[in-house]
Structure formats: C-alpha cells, structure tokens
Amino acid sequence: MLVEARALGRPWLEVYTRHWRLQAANADDRGAVALSEATATFEFAHRDETARCPQSVCVVQDLCITYGNTDGPGFADARIAVALETLDRIDPSWSCWSCLSTELVRALLDAERLDDAAAALDARRAAVFESGLVPSLSLDLTQVMILIRRGRADDALTMIDDLASRAHPGWDPERKAARLALLRCETLAALGRGDEARACLPSPETVKRRALGRSRWIATIERLVELGSLDNDDTIATWVHDVVDHARAGGAWRRMFDTAAAQARLALARGSAGDALDALAALREARGELRVDAGAAATLAELESQVSALADRGA
Fold first, then answer.
1. Phi, psi (deg, nearest 5) at residue 93
2. Do the beta carbons of residue 66 and residue 78 sit within 8 Å?
C-alpha cells in the first residue's frame, strides 16, 4: 500500500500507511530496529504538504512509543518534549489527545518524576471531563499504574474492577480483558496475594497475541515466584529467556536489560550458574546500548558479584 500511495502522489495517504505500519511494530515492542522509520515518518508527516493530515498527530505517538520501546529512561526527555509540543496544538476532542497524554505520563514515570506524572494525569483527566467527555481506557489504565507506583494497590484493584464493569467502545473486548488481567495480576502480587494473582496471570500465548507488556509480565512472574505461588522451574526459565530474545531482536534495550536482570535473579534462586551466566551476557549486551545508566551499572555489578559467588561454589 505504501508503494501505491507514493505512485498516486498522495502524501496524506502515505502518512496514514506509514503510521499503521509503525503501529504494528509498536505492538510487537520493537525499539531500535524501528527507530529510523519512526523518525523518518515523523519528519515526513510534518512537512508543509502533510502537516495538516490528522495522522501526523498519530505519528507523534508512534515516535514516542518507539523511543519508549528502545530505552524509556534514555529517551524520556525527548518523549516529554514532543508530546507536550503536540498536545499544545490539539484538545480533548481529538482521540490522539488521550493517546499522547498517556505517552506524556509514561515518559514522566520513566524519568522517575512520579509526582509530576500524577499531576499531569490528573490535569489531563480533568480536561476531558470539562469537555463533557469521559477518559479513554488508556488514560484509566495509566491511572491504575500511577496508583500501583504510589503503593495504593487496594485503590488500583478497586479501579480495575470498575473498568472491567464498564463498556469501552473502540476496544476489542478480549484485548481489554487481557490488559486488565495483567494489571489485576500485578496489583494482587503487589498486595502479597500470590495465589489470587497466579489465577489471573495471562499465558505466554495471550501476552503475545494481545500485545501485552512482556517485561511487565516477567516482572510479575518474578514476584509470584518470590511469593511462592509459581515454581521457579525450567518453564519459567524458558519464558524469561524467550522475552530476553524478543527484546534483543527488536532492539528494546532497556526492557532486555530489565528482563535479563530478572533472568539472573531467578537463575540465582534456582542455583543455576549456567543460566545466570547467560543472563549476565545479555545484561552486558543491553547495557552497552542504553542511552543513560539509570541504575543499570549498579544492578549489573551486584548481579556479577552474586553470579561469581555461585559459580565459585559450584567449581
């Protein structure tokens, strides 16, 4: 379709086509491998002949997501800047307004600006209500994430129950149910209710099919292992290894690093020096691609020490 759009000399159609191609990449958590396409599409969408195309705003979200997939903290400032610049040009009547507001808040969270993220989200939700509209599911899901980060897991669980009971036009019901299931699992795990959390943990197939956050899924699995609600066995090792490989293939370097750190900790808990050494190799590879450290060096040093001690005991 992109070839046809160019052949027809329809730049708006080309923006539309390139946007949806990036949406597919974003759903697959692609980071660095999609970055050149995202930046080139952003530039193309803001030329004189395309700047008034509605999809030019969608392309801004594509860029924010690709930046976040590549290295959330490393690109946090760029994501905040581009989201704010675009939000100043639109209002809550645009569907993109909620999407970009979500990207702004997530970037602030990656920048470790929790209070600013919460304030920004409150302001965005208030603006929606003042316009006579209701917040999108994406804004509501982001509110749940804020509550979890603030240690208000009980409130988060209440909100998840409320969202599950309401209709959200435009959202595939199965995808919505899968997103809420992962959030519910995270929240219950944060409350220490491991067995309840285990009951709603999405399967690897659901995570892939419904484009759920793979790294968040692994973080939740690690917590369930800590709670004794999941066995730290070869199945878990395979799941984590597959997510590390997926992040590597897409150039999702921060997620690769975070997941490899979980892989190392789980391997240490199993007493598997071989798996732990594999995880260290992945950690070093991913760290070399990060734009900012954001605690990576300290995490790597601590795990190197622990893995070395395990290897020495097995020698």
1. -70, -20
2. no
Query: For residue range 129-177, what is the model confidence (pLDDT) as tens digits?
Result: 999 999 899 999 999 999 999 999 999 999 999 999 998 888 889 999 9
Tokens representing 223 are 């917590």
Torsion (CA) 55, 57, 63, 69 in degrees, nearest 10: -90
Task: Tokens for 94, please give them.
Answer: 């645009």
Q: Amino acid identity, residue 81?
A: A
Contact 84, 60 (CB under 8 A): no
Rounded CA-CA distance 161/170 in Å is 19
- Nearest Cα neighbor of 70 from 102, 26, 22, 104 is 26
Structural contact between residues 41 and 59, judged by C-beta atoms closer than 8 angstroms: yes
Please give the DSSP secondary-structure letter assigned to residue 203. P
pLDDT digits (tens, 9 = 90+) for 241-285: 999 999 999 999 999 999 999 999 999 999 999 999 999 999 999
Quick one: how far is CA 88 from the chain centroid? 24
> Could you give phi then psi for residue 169, rounded to 5 degrees?
-55, 140
Residues 123 and 143 sit within 8 Å (Cβ to Cβ): no
Tracing tokens 């030019």 back to the chain, one arrives at 56
